[in-house]
Fold this protein.
Amino acid sequence: MCGIAGILAFSGAASVSVEDLVNLNDAMPHRGPDGAGTWLSDDHKVGLAHRRLAIVDLTDDAAQPMTDNDTSIYLSYNGEIYNHLELRAELEAAGHRFRTDHSDTEVLIHGYKEWGIDKLVERLIGMFAFAIWDIRKKRLTIVRDRVGVKPVYFTRAGGRFLFGSEIKAMLTDSAVPRAINGTAIAHYLSFMVSPAPLTMFRGIFKLPAGHIMEVEANGTARARRYWDAVPGHSGITSELVGLSDGAARDFLSQQVLSKLETAIDRRMMSDVPFGVFLSGGIDSSANVAIMSQISNQPVKTFTIGFSDHTHLNELDYAEKVAKHFQTDHHEILVNGSDMRGYLDDLIVSQDEPISDWVCVPLYFVSKLARDNGVTVVQVGEGSDEQFAGYSAYMKYLALDDRLGNGPVKGMIGMMSPIIGAMAKAFPGRGSVFEQAYEISRRIKLGHELFYGGSNAFWHIHIEKYLEDAGMAPDPADVDTGVEGLSLDGAGSPDSGDVIDAFASAIVKADGSADQLAKMVHAEMRLRLPELLLMRVDKITMSTSIEARVPFLDHELVELTMDIPRHLKTDGYKTKDLLKRALRGVIPDEIIDRKKMGFAAPASEWLREDFGREAQDMVLGSRLTQSGPLRGDYIKKAFEDHRDGTMDNALHLWVILNLTAWHDRWVDGPAAG
């Protein structure tokens, strides 16, 4: 796990210096405490930078940027290729000679030369973001892994194309402007993060998951999607023909468990100590159970709790799992004071606002792991999305089942203005009128009903928190300068168009995709890669540890996308198929317990002294005083939350992250 960056000077007057590359590296030392390297072309037109967190092949031979034997290819790479030994053997059989003992980095170089970029990526099993400069073709190729575990950002400034694992690396170039993306702001409020390819920085973009981007020496760029989480990849459908539902569930349970065991085993590849974040829920307990079967020594487990608001703690369940599997268990307790002491660093680590309060406990449990000598951890992200683990999924499925596409649905859409008036008369995110209005509005406009598992602000809320004019969009908001890179609806001011674009993509790939498949696909396009996986990447890497995500092994994802809804949920049962697969693997007490979810007591913290401090921060921001945020409404939202009239915690946390990010990176000392 590492940090990558680089610069391509495409205009005649522009060039790249060693100092430029060192600055890129120096902006993200946490991504690579074990080394830093740069490579600069003889003509000073191209340079690559790399920060190293040594995990596989710890020798200096595996340092980066890396080149091949005839120095025609240069590579900067972040991630892990879990099948690199098999690929190395195949390449050696084809005549390639390796200089390293077992570096997966060198496999990428030889694989590119042997198979080309498309066939190489097709063979890779892992998580990765890498950049290849091909001297003969004079082409920079940048790749992001299938599901988006690893990030890569890019921009243009001063006749140069810049890219990096973190935005802050590119901001070391004074030519890169610091301005808020006026088009992204409404989407951010909707989804708690900006959808790819947009970021909250105007003119700075992120390569979406499953994409290859090629940049020529003259600066022209093109991109293409090489993988998408759509049905039709696993080949499992034909094996279900003729099976009863019971037999099909038994068969699929075995398949899911087998794929998960393989995924976890792959992710135990490491030359440094590894462990697992243990909450005591199904996903993390499955990680522990299967790792314990494979490992010849106790698995190191790490759990976090809260000393000030214990109702969110899962410490007892985590301890039961740890004892059951005889792990080397570690715990830490934090409180509101710890959160406040970390908040400034959180804004720096995120780069752009990622408004999930889970980032707070995630940081402290990551630091706990690092302090105990662990460099690699396995986490459970992706399980709830694939196996319908959220009760909200079931609510939307039930709603879709009831409404269908008949006259009742049309009538609800027609009643949108009336319901909207009632929603304004009886406000509050918990108001049935606001919920009804949001649904009726989506129906009226022809949008998908499900906006994702992290739909923070509904349209009525955006209208309240943002001035009517909002923030004026600018062509630079959406001009990626990359041919073939779709905005997927993000260029529209209406977030429903983003979700509709995802729905269109899966229907185009498989016209028979059911409603749950459409919902999961939307999560795989937005919430997972840009919110959940980025919180994991940014926060764990801020403590210099690597997080691996076995539930998002692409072969497991391809399997689950081909499982029909009725076999996955058996009605409206959350995680039904996964629970069947894990019977006998983890204790029934864990499988049958009520889901809590990894969370933080942000609602309580915002009712304490921190809430007044947060209010002052938000109201004092230029985004509020002279920008698009409505200070009067925000002030009332803080007051209503403090006195218990309403629970506005989610909205306030999202707004706080936005203003804190803006004041740090756009309008504060860091902007200088």
Notes: The mean pLDDT is 94. Residues 515-542 form the longest helix (28 residues). The first strand starts at residue 2 and ends at 9. The two ends are 30 Å apart (CA to CA).
